[in-house]
Design goal:
Length: 408
């Protein structure tokens, strides 16, 4: 079954003018000293929020931010997000000081047609993420008292069975917003009949985080490029020494199985041929480029740390990407936050901007990296807002927050 969309919501409840619509967005933005350092997720919510505002709905946006542990914590307040949203919308945004209490009810009651309010961090209430169904549903019921309908548009949390994501969508007439609709469309294209050649580039720290997606995509892709910290487990599986680089010894047999399966299926497995080895995990550390077959043959010996793919590997990955019609990338190629080890990630991001076809940045650290490295969102076909949710979708897992909206 297809997702229920905003059009179907209007079919269910009639005109949205004057209706109170609670929108589960993903405003889980990075904050430093109370200042938003990347407002990408706030911007991603604007199309749906503006559509509802323009239709005269009375909009109540709700989200989590960080992991406050089920109790109010000022450093996780959504107040800075409400302020930024006001700037982006060019209109006042009311802010409730709680989630389902007196302030939330006052904010909802004070809305006129086309107005918008933001509730305080949902995770200030422990029942938002409760494992107990009754507790979670009870919190959802209190949220439902605020509204006449619900729109789910926080793709980053659709893999979680949480009160505002799953239970609330059962208690009110509900539908997916534009962001979720677009995410599902793009990710579905990556798993069902992608235009070929199809290349997947995986990075990040751990192989174990990507086991499901590798297994699910190996039968579907033409090329698989492996970088980031996880590459050292692949290199070790090939018999190379990796010094003190990140290594998951317990995954070596699994990785050898992937290498064999790729060969059996005719998938081009592009593994690093060089890496940037450093004396320590620091931007000031001494570092050299070493061949994959000689990562321990550096001045640092067996104490060296691999912190980025090398320039020859970056060229190989860029060539693989450049010759593709569909590319999915998830996970940085190195420690991009430290300038000496950002070149590999920047090379991959740059190659994606040149793809003649669909290029998808798989959210999370990858999305943060492209922005930090100076790329614009518009340079890519799609930047996902949900790292974990994107990977689980591509693993073929059932996502509660999508199933409750009709997705099968």
């Amino acid at each position: 079954m297809p997702l229920r969309t905003l059009d179907s919501l209007q079919d269910a409840v009639g005109s949205l003018a004057g209706k109170r619509v609670i929108v589960r967005v993903d405003f889980n933005v990075p904050l430093k000293d109370g200042v938003i350092t990347d407002d990408g997720r706030v911007r991603a919510a604007l199309p749906t929020l503006n559509q509802l505002i323009n239709q005269g709905a009375r909009v109540i946006a709700c989200s989590h931010l960080g992991r406050p542990g089920g109790a109010p914590d000022p450093k996780y307040s959504l107040a800075p997000v409400a302020q930024r949203l006001s700037e982006l919308l060019g209109k006042p945004v009311a802010f409730a000081l709680d989630t389902v209490g007196e302030s939330a009810h006052e904010a909802a009651a004070g809305l006129g047609d086309g107005d918008i309010a933001v509730l305080e961090n949902l995770r200030f209430d422990p029942d938002e993420t409760a494992k107990d169904d009754a507790a979670r549903r009870g919190f959802a019921a209190r949220l439902a008292e605020l509204a006449d309908a619900m729109v789910s548009d926080g793709f980053g949390v659709v893999h979680r069975k949480q009160a505002s994501v799953y239970d609330l969508a059962q208690l009110l007439p509900s539908a997916a917003g534009q962001l979720i609709e677009k995410e599902v469309d793009v990710l579905d294209r990556l798993t069902e009949n992608p235009e070929r050649p199809y290349t997947v580039v995986l990075g990040g720290s751990k192989v174990s985080d990507k086991l499901g997606v590798i297994s699910h995509l190996l039968p579907r892709v033409d090329r698989l490029c492996i970088g980031g910290g996880m590459m050292f487990t692949f290199l070790k599986a090939q018999g190379h020494g990796v010094g003190k680089s990140l290594l998951e010894e317990d995954q070596l047999d699994t990785v050898r199985g992937y290498i064999a399966e790729a060969a059996e299926r005719g998938v081009e497995l592009v593994l690093p041929v060089d890496a940037v080895m450093a004396s320590a995990f620091s931007a000031d550390a001494d570092h050299v480029i070493a061949a994959a077959s000689g990562l321990e043959d550096t001045p640092f010996g067996a104490d060296g740390l691999g912190l980025d793919i090398g320039p020859e590997t970056a060229r190989l990955f860029a060539d693989a990407i450049g010759g593709s019609r569909t590319v999915f990338w998830n996970g940085p190629m190195g420690v991009f936050e430290l300038a000496p080890f950002a070149a590999g990630t920047k090379a991959v991001a740059g190659a994606l901007t040149e793809v003649d076809g669909l290029s998808v940045v798989g959210g999370g650290d990858s999305a943060a990296a492209v922005r930090q490295l100076g790329f614009r969102d518009a340079q890519f076909g799609h930047i996902s807002t949900g790292g974990g949710a994107s990977l689980e979708f591509l693993e073929g897992k059932k996502l509660p927050g999508l199933e409750v909206l009709g997705w099968q």
